[in-house]
Amino acid sequence: MLDDKFVSEGKEGVLPRYVLQILTLIEEAGYEAYVVGGAVRDIVLGLAPHDFDVASSAFPDEMIEVLSAAGIRYVDMARRHGTVTAVTSEGNVEITTFRVDGEYSDLRRPDEVSFTRSIEEDVRRRDFTVNAMYLGRDGSICDITGGLADLERGIIRAVGDPEVRFTEDALRIVRGLRFAAKYGFEIDDKTFEAMEKLAPNLRAVSGERVAEELKGLICAPGASDIIRKAYRILGVLVPELITCHGFEQHSRYHDRDVFEHTLAVLDGIPFRDDIPEGVIPCRDTELAAAAILHDLGKPECFVMNEDGIGHMKGHPEVSRRIAARVLGELKCPREFTENVTGLVLLHDTFLKPDRYIVHRFMSEHPLSLLSKLTVLQRADILAHSEYGQNRMERLDALEKIEAELISEGKVFSIRELEIKGSDLIAEGVPEGPEVGRVLAEIFDAYMRGEVGNNAEELRTYIREHILTVR
């Protein structure tokens, strides 16, 4: 249910003081001013907005005049498109003039805009009805497109003709999916039909813009339901999703096809524990991405033996390659790509629960990555058939050893040893490559538990076990 205090007039305490100040200044100068967009949507839903945008009948020069007269700093970064940012000590507010957009030849931004005094004309350019509500400083809402009713019903619906909206900016297709996944909403039938029809236009949108929307989608509470519904749309960006859809694994370890197994793994990724109150929960982005990408290579690797049993040997490496291509096309940052592809490559690695083997593995990969790997593997195991969940016991044993090694203060890098190359040279090790070889040998002995990590013990080990045999 919607919060009634944000629907009727005359309610106070809806907006923070600095936003009310901006609205008041503009209105007292004789212009209209409203908070618009996501902040209104979230306020109506009883959630905490993270920023506030304002739409006004004041033209840019008029806005600047109002702000200047009040002694408020401003940043004129997009006056051509009608936007001026007011800078206050409590927060910044983007103020945009009511406008009519021209053609969108690049499927991203209008080639030109015309300013207008009419809120009715401004609303026609908005993407979805739930984002097309205008909140006044008195708490009243101007709702021309039926956004309040759609919020009440839990519907994502495009403003006006959805084909026009998505032709203007194809990114709105993925944004609509993200909203539906975030809020647990359904997508209006005509809106979804237009999404599917115009999905190929997503190929013309920059990877960075698509990536941000996709990250929000896969991390959202309702991600799996929306991905299941919209897999053909998302397949424009990741064709392997379509290949995996309905691809049976023919294995007693699995009771789902590859696509449904993937979504079950995503559902098994827990929400982050650092989400503030009043904010919708979300998953860790790297883990969510790894869950989606971890098995995309299975169809390519699939082989069925004479007994009708499916095998997909080597699928982690093939999936890693696919993940690297997808994340590269989306222009994801290098660190993000390396971490996600690392998780994908290692997701099917289950070591023997031996302290030395685990210690060496931990020395080969960042601990931050390995902590996420355990989460991914646990979700992956739980998405197997009951028979296929027999790996959980091994994972628990491995996790216990990792925790013990960390709690005992063990080190996981040669650089952390209490002995350096110069110490080896002083003990008689020849300069050059031999120093590195000896350090590696000492570190291996340390991981085996043959020597502790203190300088004197390490020197003694060198003299008794290394120099004497060289």
Short structural summary:
The chain has 470 residues and is α+β, with helices and mostly antiparallel strands.
Kindly describe this structure.
This protein has 470 residues and is an alpha+beta fold. It folds into 4 domains: 4-149, Beta Polymerase, domain 2 (2-Layer Sandwich), CATH 3.30.460.10; 154-237, Hydrophobic Seed Protein (Orthogonal Bundle), CATH 1.10.110.30; 255-407, no CATH class; 414-469. Helices cover 48% and strands 9% of the residues. It has 23 helices and 13 strands. It has a 7-stranded mixed beta sheet. A two-stranded antiparallel sheet has the order 6-7. α17 packs across α19. It is globular, with a radius of gyration of 29 Å. The N and C termini lie far apart (78 Å).
What is the topological layout?
Elements: H1 17-28, E1 33-36, H2 38-44, E2 53-56, H3 60-69, E3 73-78, E4 83-87, E5 92-97, E6 99-101, E7 113-115, H4 119-123, E8 134-135, E9 141-142, H5 147-153, E10 155-156, H6 162-168, H7 171-183, E11 186-187, H8 189-198, H9 207-219, H10 223-229, H11 231-234, H12 240-244, H13 258-268, H14 285-293, H15 298-301, E12 303-304, E13 310-311, H16 315-329, H17 334-346, H18 355-364, H19 367-382, H20 392-407, H21 421-426, H22 433-447, H23 455-466
Parallel strand pairs: 2-5, 10-11
Antiparallel strand pairs: 1-2, 1-8, 3-4, 4-5, 6-7, 8-9, 12-13
Tell me the number of structural domains. 4
Strand order of the largest sheet: 3-4-5-2-1-8-9
Nearest-integer average pLDDT: 92
Shape: globular
Structural class: alpha+beta
Spans of 5+ residues with little confidence (pLDDT < 50)?
Answer: 1-11
Radius of gyration: 29 Å
Q: Name the helicity range.
A: 40-55%
Q: Write down how many β-strands occur, each being a DSSP E stretch of 2 or more residues.
A: 13
